[in-house]
Write a structure and sequence with these properties.
heterodimer; A: 286 residues; mainly alpha; ABC transporter involved in vitamin B12 uptake, BtuC; B: 321 residues; 14 helices
C-alpha cells in the first residue's frame, strides 16, 4: 500500500509537468485549432538555455529560469508570426506540417548549439523529506509546489482576467469574438508567448528531475497531446485532470508492471478512454 | 492535349526508370533510386488514407516495420522461402492494421493523427523491448535476398533487385490508379469532403475508412518486406515516428490526393536529405526550413504547381488547350 502511495506521489510530480506542457498545447489548440507539435522541442531550447546560464555563466537557477522563460516568451511570438500566421487560412494539415518543420528546426538548433550529450540541470536541493513511510525529495517537493502555482496562475488568468475572457471567447466562437472587437492577432501572439513560457518551465523541471537530450522534446510533445486526448482537446480542466492521470498511470505502470513498457501502458489507457469517451474525459461533444 | 500527354509522360518516366541502372554507374545513385521506389509504395499507401480519405495517419513507418519484421522472422525463424514470406508480409500487416485502425478510426481529425502516432510509438517500443523475438536495438542481421528466379535471375545482384522493386512499385501505382477510379475511391473522396453527408446518404462510412486504413497498411507492409530483404539488416530505428512523418511529407510535398504527387514526394524525401548532407549538422535545420517554406509557398504540393507551370508554358508557346 505504501508502495502504491509512493508511486502515486511520484506520478503526481511528473504529471504536473505534463499539465504545464498540455496547458500550452490546449490553449493554442483552442484558439487556432492547430496541433503545435514543435512545442516540446522549443521548450527544450529553454531548458538548454538554463543549463548554459547556470553552468557556464554561474547564474543563480531562479534568475536563469526567468531569463529562459523570457526567451520562451519572445520565441513563442516569433514562431507564431513567422511560421503559423502565413498558413492561418490554409487547411489545418498545412499548419501541422509547418509544426513538423519547426520541430526539426528546433531540434537541429538545439543539437547545433548545445551538442548531442544529455545534460542534467544542477540543483543543490539534496535533502529528503519523510512523511510517514513516504519519501519525497526536496527537488520534487519544490517542483510540485511550482507546478501547482503555475497551473493555478494560468487558470486564474484565463478564467478571471479580461484577456483570459477574450481568449475563451475566441475559442468558443471565433467570429462572434471578432465582431465584439477582440484583437485576434494580439491574443494569438500572447497565447503563444504564454504557452512557450510554461513549456520552458516544464523543460527546466524535466532537466532537473531527469535529463535533457535530443529527442526528449518530441517525446514531451507526444505526451502533451496524449494528455489533451485524455482530457479533451481545448479544455483546460481536461488538461489538468488528463496530465495527472497520465503521470500517475505511468508511475504505477513503471513501478508494478514494467518500466520498459510504461509508455505503452499509458498509451493503452489513452486508447481505452477514447473507445469509451471519444471526446475525452472532460471534452464536449463536437 | 494535356490528357493525351499524360500517358506519354508516364511511359517516358517508366522507360527512364528501366534504363537508369544501365546508364548510372555510381552504385550509390542506383541505391537511392531503389529506396525512393520503396518509398513510393509507402507514399501511395499514405495517400490512400491521408490524401483520398482525409485522415492523417502517423503510423505508416510503424506498419512498414510490421511488414519488415514479419517477412524477416518468417524467413529466418520459421525457415520459409523468402518469396513466400515477402508475399505474406503485406497481408500480416493488413491484418494487424485492423486492430490499430478500428479504435483509431473512432475519432477524427487531430485526435486520429495523435492516436495513430501513439500506435507508432507502441510498435517502436515493442520492437525495442521484445528482444527475444526482435533482438531489440541491436537488430537482425543477414536477412537473405529472395531465391533466384527459375535459377536465372540472381537477386543478390543489386540491379536485379532494382527491377523487382520497380515491378512492385509499378503494380502498386496501377492498383492505386484503379482504386482512385473505382466507386470505392469516389466514396473515400466523398468522406474526405463531407463525412456527415456521405453517412447521411447511406454510406457505411466506417467500413470505407477501415478499408482505406488497411489498404494503406498493405502498401506499407509490402514496402517493409522489400526494404528488409534489400538492406539485409533491420532495427527499430528505421520504423519510428520520424519516418512516418516522412511518409506524410512525401504526400504533402508531392501533391495530396493525386496519383503521381506521392511518387514525386517519395523521391524528394529520399534525395533531399542526401543532398543536404553537405552540412551534416545543419541538415535538420535546413530540411525543416525547406518544409516550412514549401508549405507556405505551395500549400497544395509540387505536382499541381508543375501542372500550372506546364499550362502557362503551353499557352505561351501557342498550343491549343
Amino acid at each position: 500500500m505504501v508502495e502504491v502511495l509512493q508511486q502515486i506521489l511520484n506520478g503526481l510530480t511528473i504529471g504536473g509537468v505534463y499539465v504545464l506542457i498540455a496547458l500550452g498545447l490546449t490553449t493554442v489548440f483552442g484558439i487556432l485549432g492547430i496541433s503545435h507539435f514543435a512545442h516540446g522541442s522549443i521548450s527544450m531550447f529553454g531548458g538548454y538555455v538554463v543549463f548554459y546560464l547556470v553552468t557556464q555563466q554561474g547564474m543563480p537557477l531562479a534568475f536563469a529560469c526567468l531569463a529562459a522563460m523570457g526567451a520562451g516568451f519572445v520565441l513563442g511570438i516569433a514562431v507564431e508570426r513567422l511560421a503559423y500566421r502565413p498558413v492561418r487560412d490554409a487547411s489545418p494539415i498545412n499548419a501541422f506540417i509547418v509544426a513538423l518543420g519547426l520541430t526539426m528546426i528546433a531540434e537541429g538548433a538545439n543539437l547545433q548549439l548545445f551538442g548531442a550529450d544529455q545534460i542534467v540541470i544542477p540543483t543543490n536541493l539534496q535533502s529528503v523529506f519523510r512523511i510517514g513511510a513516504l519519501t519525497l525529495t526536496e527537488l520534487r517537493f519544490y517542483i510540485i509546489l511550482l507546478t501547482a502555482g503555475l497551473i493555478l496562475a494560468m487558470t486564474l488568468y484565463i478564467q478571471r482576467s479580461k484577456t483570459g475572457y477574450a481568449i475563451r471567447a475566441l475559442a468558443q466562437n471565433r467570429n462572434a469574438a471578432i465582431l465584439m472587437g477582440v484583437n485576434v492577432s494580439r491574443i494569438t501572439m500572447l497565447v503563444f508567448a504564454m504557452s512557450s513560457m510554461l513549456g520552458v518551465a516544464a523543460a527546466v523541471m524535466i532537466g532537473a528531475l531527469f535529463a535533457i537530450a535530443p529527442g526528449v522534446g518530441e517525446g514531451l510533445a507526444i505526451k502533451g497531446f496524449s494528455v489533451l486526448i485524455l482530457g479533451g482537446l481545448g479544455s483546460i480542466p481536461g488538461a489538468i485532470v488528463g496530465g495527472l492521470i497520465l503521470g500517475v498511470t505511468e508511475a504505477l505502470a513503471a513501478g508494478f508492471l514494467s518500466s520498459a513498457y510504461k509508455d505503452v501502458i499509458a498509451f493503452l489507457v489513452m486508447i481505452i478512454v477514447l473507445l469509451v469517451r471519444p471526446q475525452g474525459l472532460l471534452g464536449k461533444h463536437s | 492535349m494535356k490528357r493525351a500527354l499524360v500517358p506519354l509522360a508516364v511511359l517516358a518516366l517508366l522507360a527512364l526508370a528501366i534504363a537508369a541502372p544501365q546508364y548510372i554507374t555510381v552504385r550509390y545513385y542506383v541505391q537511392l533510386i531503389l529506396l525512393a521506389m520503396i518509398w513510393t509504395i509507402m507514399a501511395h499507401g499514405q495517400n490512400i488514407i491521408q490524401g483520398m480519405t482525409g485522415y492523417v495517419s502517423i503510423t505508416q513507418a510503424g506498419l512498414m516495420g510490421v511488414g519488415a519484421y514479419a517477412s524477416t522472422l518468417l524467413s529466418i525463424r520459421l525457415g520459409w522461402p523468402v518469396w513466400a514470406s515477402m508475399a505474406i508480409a503485406p497481408f500480416i500487416t493488413a491484418l494487424f492494421s485492423v486492430f490499430v485502425g478500428y479504435p483509431s478510426l473512432r475519432v477524427k481529425g487531430h485526435y486520429f493523427a495523435i492516436v495513430t502516432l501513439a500506435f507508432n510509438m507502441v510498435i517502436f517500443i515493442v520492437l525495442m523491448n521484445f528482444t527475444s523475438l526482435t533482438r531489440g536495438e541491436a537488430g537482425i542481421f543477414n536477412i537473405q535476398r529472395p531465391e533466384p528466379l527459375f535459377g536465372l535471375v540472381d537477386f543478390d545482384d543489386r540491379v536485379a533487385y532494382y527491377y523487382l522493386v520497380l515491378t512492385v512499385a509499378v503494380v502498386m501505382t496501377a492498383l492505386t490508379w484503379l482504386l482512385m477510379r473505382s466507386s470505392i475511391g469516389r466514396t473515400l473522396r466523398a468522406i474526405r469532403q463531407n463525412e456527415n453527408l456521405a453517412s447521411a446518404c447511406g454510406v457505411a462510412v466506417w467500413k470505407y475508412k477501415l478499408f482505406a486504413f488497411v489498404a494503406s497498411a498493405f502498401y506499407a507492409g509490402a514496402a517493409g518486406a522489400l526494404y528488409a530483404h534489400y538492406i539485409g539488416f533491420i532495427n527499430p530505428e528505421t520504423f519510428g515516428v520520424a519516418q512516418s512523418l516522412d511518409a506524410i511529407l512525401a504526400v504533402i510535398l508531392g501533391g495530396t490526393g493525386t496519383l503521381f504527387g506521392p511518387v514525386l514526394g517519395a523521391f524528394a524525401v529520399v534525395f533531399l536529405p542526401e543532398y543536404l548532407r553537405i552540412a551534416e549538422s545543419f541538415r535538420l535545420i535546413v530540411y525543416g526550413l525547406l518544409l516550412v517554406v514549401a508549405t507556405i509557398l505551395m500549400p497544395r504540393g509540387a505536382l499541381p504547381l508543375l501542372g500550372r507551370a506546364w499550362h502557362a508554358a503551353a499557352r505561351r508557346l501557342g498550343f491549343p488547350k
